[in-house]
Automatic annotation (TrEMBL), chain A:
One of its GO terms (cellular component) is endoplasmic reticulum membrane. GO terms for biological process: protein transport; vesicle-mediated transport. It is found in: Endoplasmic reticulum membrane. One of its GO terms (molecular function) is GTP binding. Pfam families: SRPRB. It comes from Flemingia macrophylla. Its main location: endoplasmic reticulum. Belongs to the small GTPase superfamily. Arf family. This is Signal recognition particle receptor subunit beta. PROSITE patterns: ARF. Keywords: Endoplasmic reticulum, ER-Golgi transport, GTP-binding, Lipoprotein, Membrane, Myristate, Nucleotide-binding, Protein transport, Receptor, Transmembrane, Transmembrane helix, Transport. The chain crosses the membrane at residues 30-50.
UniProtKB/TrEMBL annotation, chain B:
Signal peptide: none annotated. This is SRP54-type proteins GTP-binding domain-containing protein. It comes from the Eukaryota. Keywords: Endoplasmic reticulum, GTP-binding, Membrane, Nucleotide-binding, Receptor. It is found in: Endoplasmic reticulum membrane.
Amino acid sequence: MEELEQWKEQLSHFYNLVMDRLREVPPDQLYAAAAIAIFTTLLLLSLRLFKRAKSNTVVLTGLSGSGKTVIFYQLRDGSTHQGTVTSMEPNEDTFILHSEKTGKGKIKPVHVVDVPGHSRLRPKLDEYLPQAAGIVFVVDALDFLPNCRSASEYLYDLLTKGSVVKKKIPVLILCNKTDKVTAHTKEFIRRQIEKEIDKLRASRSAISAADIANEFSLGIPGEPFSFTQCSNKVTTADASGLTGEISQLEEFIREHVKQ
Amino acid sequence: MLEQLLIFTRGGLILWTCKELGNALKGSPIDTLIRSCLLEERSGAASYHYDAPGASYTLKWTFRNELGIVFVAVYQRILHLLYVEDLLAKVKREFSLVYDPKRTAYPDFDETFRQLKMEALARAEDLKRSNLNPVAGNAKKQVQGHNKLGFEGGNKKSGSVAKSGGGADGDDANGWKMENGHAKGSFVAKDANLSSVVNGRENGSPNVGAFDVHKLQKLRAKGGGKKTDTVAKASKAEPNKKITKKNRVWDDAATKETKLDFTDNVGEDGDRNIDFVAADQGESMMDKEEIVSSESEEEEEQEDAGKNRKPHVKSKGWFSSMFQSIAGKANLEKSDLEPALIALKDRLMTKNVAEEIAEKLCESVAASLEGKKLASFTRVSSTVQAAMEEALLRILTPRRSIDILRDVHAAKEQRKPYVVVFVGVNGVGKSTNLAKVAYWLLQHNVSVMMAACDTFRSGAVEQLRTHARRLQIPIFEKGYEKDPAVVAKEAIQEASRNGSDVVLVDTAGRMQDNEPLMRALSKLIYLNNPDLVLFVGEALVGNDAVDQLSKFNQKLSDLSASANPRLIDGILLTKFDTIDDKVGAALSMVYISGAPVMFVGCGQSYTDLKKLNVKSIVKTLLK
């Protein structure tokens, strides 16, 4: 109890000292100091808000072998160089799209991340999703039917992740390898994936696995699933990585990465 | 002869390929290498063999971790080229000087590579020449004989090689041809190989002195070692099999006269004993959420143990490691990683990971960390720990979906029953866990049927019958001493007739070395082509897990009559409640077979079945 009294006395002593000093200082300086402090705080807060709203990251994902790394290099350099092999690590870079390099004016660079599609490296995707402004899900249109199930499962997992649903990140389903004659059309692919996801919804809601946590469920139960039922926008597009036909993809990027 | 040498980044972009060796590779060996070897944490292995229709290659690789580049050399499987490793090391060094992260094409490297290759060939040739001093040579790679005849023979082969370039290249090419021959240990073999392998090159006549038939045979035998083992075992097992198909006798017990088959008169007894039905014993643990405790354990106690063992190293090492951790040392060398890796390996082994697996894992982690830059304020041991954690997570994450219900629904649409076969050694808990899986499936409105294909063990059919009665599901049985493959086939037909969604097939336990039983199992799988081959293994097993799984897989692939043999698709880990934190068996099994752990049995009642929680296993392993 005595100690508390002592503390109180010391504090009041300090307080009096401080007040005396303050009174010595001319009031203008005081107001100026206070104003600067408030202004700086406001500035920092607003910068943080700004940064959060404007992300310029686009995430390229999809199954292994669908052509993500080829598309990444097409976006960046306009050519596929000498070919690619299965990626073991993500490729990320911030650059101006190759086709826009000749454009006029100040173009904001885009941060593109190419996440490996191999199932053992799937957890890497979760690192990049929070900062994504748009997700591109690359599908192999040539070899689609054998991989339809795994592609749909991956897409389903993606669309039910918390970060994707809450922030309503737009998803583009990019059908790659359309330069080949036997490639499927994007409408066909869209319908097939919708059907598969419909089936997946039924079986996934039956189990609540400890590992595979689907945080949200998709669509309206009772109705066949369609992408229009998702809260975030899902669109489809065609592309061909090898020949460089990526105009629809670039439109998507320009649309969702605000300048 | 080198088929191809590639340099690519870890992100997947090919930086350089050798344009001289323009042969296109058949199949996709590089992608397969990455998927089955480098991503499976087997990058510590020396080489990788790739077999595709029409080609078989051997691949060797090396990493440059701080730049994130991989160097891969591909050559024909039947050749044993000695200069490849040397060449890879030189190429690595030269390329790292030229490398620039911004550049994606390196056309000027062609010239450098050509020089390096010639140097490597010349060096290898010199090594051969200097090693050949005494005459008698062993059949191993380090030939201790100097064969002057061979060298003269090499020189005599003028202009027999159609390599690009003129006479200047001729000498090197001859030296190169001779070196290949020495690698095989016999000149005739070299010529035979080259004539079959090399395209469009004319060979001179084999003119060197005596070629050693024994050496040739020894080398052939060395290559086919695996096959001879199985052949020897088969011949050993053959005499055990009696001529007449009598009772299967395990050891030399006296054969009983009367046939002990109680299949007929069980009806009434069974009914009387089974009073209650296991309708609802509660939710199976498969469906419960797992609460992962987030305790961050310090490794201090393990560190102390390490310190006690190597006091002298540690006392100096601690100070320097502290200094390095603050300063951020330049590059990690193998010697820095050694103590941390040894400590980690011991820790894994105390958690019941098989010794071989722990070794390979540590090598793989070392290969991925060598040359990397240490971030400041981190110790070497924590970097190694983080890398190992990532590696373990990668291995234990399933490569394909383990969503059985989804597969069952898919099979249901095709109007076929989904067939699961439970295989394993004796006493691991196949029948018990089969019942647990049936209970879980029933809870999800899937109709199940059991097939009693364990026709050997006394009481096996009754055991399943009891389970079936309790769970109220149909069971297909044909009693004892019948052929399991035929019983399974009929069971599947019955299932498709009465509309069951899933058929669970129970088989007899068998040791992996028992040839006739493995053959019978292989026949069962081949005949019925199940959707899922589930290997049941107990968590108590130690180093034997590696042997069991690899032999099972090997026998299934060797003894199968089809071109595409079915291997083990999944693992069911049992008796998980009996081990406290010695969970290493899960890691050994997954690593050696590549199959994911689909279920974990953690008790003896119907609800004790759960999914493997990868994160908690990794945490327990590294605690």
